[in-house]
Automatic annotation (TrEMBL):
SUPFAM superfamilies, A to Z: C-terminal effector domain of the bipartite response regulators, CheY-like
Alphabetized UniProt keyword annotations: Cytoplasm, DNA-binding, Phosphoprotein, Transcription, Transcription regulation, Two-component regulatory system
Gene Ontology terms describing biological process: regulation of DNA-templated transcription
This protein's record includes keyword Cytoplasm: yes
CDD domains per record: REC_OmpR, trans_reg_C
Full protein name: DNA-binding response regulator
Response regulatory domain mapped to chain residues: 6-119
UniProt entry tagged with the keyword ATP-binding: no
Positions where 4-aspartylphosphate occurs in the chain: D55
OmpR/PhoB-type domain residues: 136-236
Main location as per UniProt: cytoplasm
DNA-binding region coordinates: 136-236
Pfam family, one: Trans_reg_C
């Protein structure tokens, strides 16, 4: 990995964050550490990072709230460090904008693999993972435009709709296979190509949330349609454009 990549570890347990920082530094990463949410917010006002490793159970403001803040205001990839074993809790973190999670206790080598995976997916130069490259691509469909660099969904009338990390991955997958019925299993397989954890029982709820954002009437969808017994399809002419 490139030594210019900057990692911020936020964990209130010194016996976790400091050994982890030393381990990551052995891979050529530039690593900083903080112990709580207030320090994280202050650090982000002064510095830029390429990735944040964020503990969920922090004193004061918890990691899930901080993850939402980072996703909405900084656009920096986040890996949650969590002791939560319930898939529903982990899904909640992904829906708030986390790019991945690692369950404690974990093998640091697994964390390295997940960090590499996120940097591969981002396809951005070091020190610029939170900023779009010059020029970007977007999908245009119906009255909508999805900017892939900004992860921004914009209506033709100008309003911007926020998407969670999982909603973005789901919509991108549907756009890549427009006018094709995708079973839940097929959707899972396609979304997992990005090395992102997705859970079968979450697909229906993600489709429902996305439908409410896309459709004028979510009860009678015309874009994100259900093929009863088979799965879902996005029914629209889709164009991939350079902007």
């Amino acid at each position: 990995m490139n030594e210019a990549l900057r990692i911020l570890i936020v964990d209130d347990h010194e016996d976790i964050r400091e050994p982890l920082a030393a381990f990551l530094a052995r891979y050529g990463l530039s690593v900083s550490t903080e112990a709580d949410g207030g320090a994280l917010r202050e650090r982000l006002r002064r510095e830029q990072f390429d990735l944040i490793l964020l503990d969920v159970m922090l004193p004061g403001e918890d990691g899930l709230s901080l993850c939402r803040h980072v996703h909405e205001h900084h656009g920096i990839p986040v890996i949650l460090l969590t002791a939560m074993s319930d898939p529903a809790d982990r899904i909640a973190g992904l829906e708030l904008g986390a790019d991945d999670y690692v369950v404690k206790p974990f093998d640091p080598r697994e964390l390295i693999a997940r960090i590499r995976s996120i940097f591969r997916r981002a396809r951005m130069a070091p020190r610029a993972l939170s900023r779009p490259l010059g020029g970007s691509q977007c999908y245009r469909f119906a009255d909508w435009q999805l900017d892939l660099s900004k992860r921004e969904l914009r209506h033709a009338q100008g309003r911007v709709v926020e998407l969670s990390a999982m909603e973005f991955r789901l919509l991108k997958t549907l756009l890549e296979h427009a006018n094709t019925v995708l079973s839940r299993e097929r959707l899972l397989n396609l979304m997992n190509k990005a090395d992102a954890p997705v859970f079968d029982r979450s697909i229906d709820s993600q489709v429902s949330r996305l439908r409410k954002k896309l459709e004028d009437d979510a009860r009678h969808p015309r874009l994100l349609r259900t093929a009863w017994g088979d799965g879902y399809l996005l029914s629209a002419d889709v164009h991939l454009l350079a902007t």
